[in-house]
Amino acid sequence: MGELMEWPCLDEYEKLVIRMNTPRVVVDNAVCATTTLVKVDSARKHGILLEAVQVLTDLNLSIKKAYISSDGRWFMDVFHVTDLNGNKLTDESVINYIEQSLGCIHHVRSNSFNGLTALELTGTDRLGLLSEVFAVLADLECNVVESKMWTHNGRIASLIYVKDCDSGNPIEDSQKIDRIEGRLRNRKNFGFLAVTHTERRLHQMMFADRDYEREPIIRSASESPAVTVQNWVERGYSVVNVQCKDRRKLLFDVVCTLTDMQYVVFHATINTAGDKAYLEFYIRHTDGSPISSEAERQRVIQCLQAAIERRASEGVRLELCTEDRRGLLADVTRTFRENGLNVTRAEISTTSEIALNVFYVTDAMGNPADPKIIEAVRQKIGLSNLKVKELPLINHQEAERDEPTVGVGGAVLLSLGSLVRRNLYNLGLIRSHS
Description:
Strand content: 25-35%
Largest sheet: 8 strands, antiparallel
Distance between the termini: 58 Å
Helix content: 25-40%
Low-confidence stretches: 1-8, 396-417, 429-434
Structural class: alpha+beta
């Protein structure tokens, strides 16, 4: 009596805790004839669903279906995935990467670009803005290695990773940093930062800029996402339904927004049929409460619609592949500006001294660009270097008939028992009795 309790098996206890908190990942090609199943189960923590989706979407995989259940303290998900051509995953290196990456999603990971300086810009979009930014960076002898830029509702957000042209090192000289900051601040809100995930940061920048509250300058011809939010009072959930055109990284964009708005997804079902996607989420705040006001409900709807629309690709897709050189981006985007082409989205990358860049362009008013102007620009930049590419199509398979899709109106909320049983069946944890 009175003695301190001893733990002779402390090492075994620690091992048990590690095993319990290490996600169990199974990649299965035998269950489904058309997709590869990726199963993940683990201890639950806020943001773990986003991290899992991020691993899959960063590999440019298409998520055809998903079943998510993370009630209590456990997280159990199944993703049905294919490559961009609609095929199952057969490359062992890709499968091993998925298993290893998902197996360590509890640990803090960063895809920041080592050896580069990260810049961010947000503000009002206008014709030729990107050209001006790249011209300033070229003039200050900054080499743009990677960059992504989105526009939405008249706003722009861009992350630019640069290094010093002469030394090839990150820009650390305080006087040079002051010069960059001074010249770019005249054009946009500007800053230096450390980035953990580029596309998540772009969403955060647009959200902070409140792009979701603004009216679009040009009405898109594409159908707007349909989003509804209802409270299921008996179970304490808010039920979010999304119906929109299917595309790559759709699930990431939605889950990213919900996570950064401090909501937790407890259950979800994602289904695709043809070129349509149907997503249903059962969510609560991180403190366990559902959405509590009409104003909050409308804000969630607006933010989810904006998150889906930001990555929508308006305009002609131009792909530039050429040997990298100083001032390349400044020259290319200046040519766009001089010919009245507006860049609505851009992805800049450099691999082994080869520039691999993608631009989506419209005319100055946001309308489809004149093909003659596109050809004139290609002549100027180089026909073999700048090519017009069709938007990559998602390989849509016939919708499976094993379950009904949930209408976006959400007129009838499924009972929690039915939802959990369906998800547990799809997770492979119970058998069907039909």
